[in-house]
Design a protein that fits this description.
Layout (H helix, E strand, L loop, with lengths): L14 H29 L3 H28 L1 H10 L6 H14 L2 E2 L4 E2 L18
Antiparallel strand pairs: 1-2
Helix pairs in contact: 1-2, 2-3
Length: 133
């Protein structure tokens, strides 16, 4: 049987959602294996065993990134966040602040990626002027 971590009845889920679930669960499992092999390698007293375990860990990292790439290709939200955060410089929390500021400057609402109202500096609640300008 497949994953037992579905939270909704299977008959209510689309095949796309099931496939995304499969990829996410597989990614989790690969990352767990990376952690396990890393711990085992660090604890190993035999250098040859340590090398074998590190080799296994690296294979699991490869598998994890293959799953991640599939997710990026098949879910726009994953892809959008990857474009924001991956391969950036500086503190990670500042990357989000810069991305949000850039979206506001470009006229997009950073909460929805929809175009913001006005000049991009508005709170998005519309004009308080009687004529709507």
């Amino acid at each position: 049987m497949g994953s037992e971590t579905y939270h909704e009845p299977l008959e209510l889920l689309s095949e796309r959602t099931k496939n995304l679930h499969r990829a996410i669960v597989s990614l989790i499992e690969e990352l767990e294996a990376v952690d396990w092999y890393g711990q085992r390698a660090e604890a190993a007293s035999d250098p040859e065993l340590k090398a074998v375990l590190l080799h296994h860990r690296n294979e699991e990292i490869e598998h994890a990134f293959m799953n991640l790439e599939w997710l990026l290709r098949n879910d726009e939200s994953f892809a959008e966040h990857a474009r924001t955060y991956l391969f950036t410089q500086g503190p990670i929390t500042e990357v989000e602040q810069a991305a949000t500021a850039a979206e506001v400057e470009s006229g997009k609402d950073p909460r929805t990626t929809a175009p913001a109202r006005g000049n991009g500096r508005s709170l998005g609640i519309g004009s308080l002027k009687a004529d709507g300008t």
